[in-house]
Specification:
The protein has about 525 residues and is of the alpha+beta class. Helix 1 packs across helix 2. The longest helix has 16 residues.
Length: about 525
């Protein structure tokens, strides 16, 4: 290490600039918006690869960082290894060379590389091949069985019906029904419109963007008596508020409706929850959240992600960055944390959320749980407590993509006591791009009862997470590298379904137990 090199902060910026100004792109080059990721990688290659190999495979004078790590594989363990070193085994200390945030970035890079969840791609075009073999896991063996393929590349949600059929939303197309033998219906007529004008930003990785999508679909708990199906979607309009008229562009916001499906048509529609039209925004639906779930008391909860300003996420007068709770008919429960106030959205249940991806109610304990995307690192599984603040954009266990800590409170003028921010029960670092999850009570997999089956997008993996007394216990990877899991649902008979998205067409797959 050349100790006469520039101050670490300036060197960090120089490393990023070196790559970003290069005349020829490489397969590993990150987009400009990911300068912190680039700086971490270049810092590793310049200082660490000589011992550990450019791809963590090891070198003559150093050890591999693949496989088991002797000093621990958690984020804190890797940070400690880089900071203090292990002189007896030839690992120097780097805490006098790199700043704490730079060391966090290096540790993040090591963990991201080990888990194959870097920021070059979101793995939309990675091969989606369902293995024919048996997966042997700690408690159960299973295989994967394809129910139906050929869905739109961007499906979002499944809802198993009592008769064995499945409702599925394709977020830029509409709603379809899948028969028990895998036949796919035409689009249901008359549902809220879905818009397919997808675009991608050149400055970011290949994340689809647009507005006016269909999100979650779920059945009323007494569906067999009343036939109600709830559909959560991005409601899009033009010339409908000041922003839309000023910018001459459409705006949107999440909306919850219910209806019935009869003879291939959506009928009897009722709007259950809708934001004030002036709060509709230009923000796309990629971070809109879009999950909904019933509890066992007649309430429905739904998530609304980053569909507006940073400051609005912390404001009770704005609907985005929140989990909401209403009665099944759209009225406000009298025990909502902000019920009775006229200067807020009375439906708000929790706030301070970035990009919520999953939502489940644990009927055994009467608790609500959510998963959400952090920035670089910092994906979370949270116990959602009434009135609680989950910190975004004031705080995150992850880093911003430019390599700096998450401290947007300074920019938007919000000062908060961090003891008042709820911390995640499960910290998923490095970020697998956590998606939907279920709390299993399937009789087909009895040893998983009460466990969380958690999907991921970028990591293309399925995890089993054990939580006891609201505390993280353990995590097992049931499979990895197969496909982007957008939704997980359990049918009335205990069947567990996975909804894969892929640019060649989405698929629904079932977990089949193997004795």
């Amino acid at each position: 290490m050349d100790t006469t090199s520039p101050h670490p902060t300036y060197r960090w910026l120089l490393l990023a600039a070196t790559l970003l100004s290069a005349s020829s792109a490489s397969a590993q080059q990150e987009a400009v918006a990911y300068s912190g990721v680039t700086a971490s990688r270049l810092a590793f290659q310049e200082n660490c690869a000589v011992c550990h190999g450019e791809n963590l495979e090891g070198a003559a004078q150093g050890t591999s960082l693949r496989g088991d790590l002797v000093h621990g594989e958690a984020m804190a363990d890797v940070v400690a290894s880089i900071s203090t070193g292990y002189v007896d085994t030839g690992m120097p200390s780097w805490d006098d060379i790199f700043s704490p945030v730079e060391i966090q970035g290096l540790a993040m890079y090591v963990l991201e590389t080990r888990a194959n969840v870097g920021y070059v791609t979101s793995n939309y075009d990675a091969p989606l091949e369902i293995p024919a073999g048996v997966f042997e896991t700690e408690h159960h063996a299973f295989r994967l069985e394809t129910v139906v393929g050929g869905l739109d590349p961007l499906p979002f949600s499944l809802a198993p019906l009592p008769d064995g059929r499945l409702l599925v939303t394709e977020k830029t197309q509409g709603v379809r029904i899948v028969s028990p033998n895998g036949e796919l219906s035409d689009l249901i007529r008359g549902t809220p419109q879905a818009f397919d004008d997808i675009f991608q930003m050149e400055t970011r990785i290949d994340i689809e963007r647009g507005m006016g999508w269909l999100f979650d679909i779920l059945l009323h708990p007494r569906y067999e008596d009343n036939g109600w199906v709830y559909l959560y979607h991005g409601h899009r309009c033009e010339d409908c508020n000041a922003v839309s008229r000023e910018r001459e562009r459409p705006v949107s916001m999440n909306r919850l409706v219910r209806g019935r499906i009869r003879d291939g048509a959506w009928i009897d529609e009722e709007v259950i929850w809708q934001a004030n039209m002036e709060d509709y925004s230009l923000a796309g639906d990629v971070g809109a959240g879009g999950r909904a779930i019933f509890d066992n008391r007649g309430h429905i909860y739904f998530t609304l992600g980053s569909k507006g300003s940073m400051a609005g996420i912390q404001s009770l007068a704005a609907p985005w960055g929140k989990t909401h709770r209403i009665n099944d008919d759209g009225t406000i429960p009298h025990d909502n944390p902000f019920a009775g106030r006229h200067d807020v959205y009375e439906s708000i249940y929790t706030y301070g959320h970035r990009s919520p991806q999953g939502l489940e109610y644990d009927a055994d304990s009467g608790t609500l749980w959510g998963s959400e995307h952090g920035p670089r690192g910092g994906d979370e599984i949270n116990l959602l407590l009434p009135g609680a603040n989950y910190g975004w954009p004031l705080f995150s266990l992850g880093l911003d993509y430019d390599g700096t800590p998450v401290e947007y409170g300074q920019d938007i003028g919000i000062d908060v006591d961090f003891s008042e921010i709820e911390q995640p029960v499960v910290d998923l670092t490095p970020s697998p791009a956590v998606s939907s999850f279920i709390i299993s009570d399937s009789n087909q997999f009895p040893s998983w009862r009460g466990d969380y089956l958690v999907g991921s997008l970028k990591a293309r993996s399925l995890f089993r997470v054990e939580i006891e007394n609201n505390r993280f216990v353990s995590q097992e990877t049931l499979f990895d590298g197969i496909g982007r899991i957008r939704d997980i649902e359990q049918g009335p008979n205990g069947d567990i379904y996975l909804l894969f998205e892929h640019d060649a067409g989405g698929e629904i797959v079932k977990l089949v137990p193997v004795s």
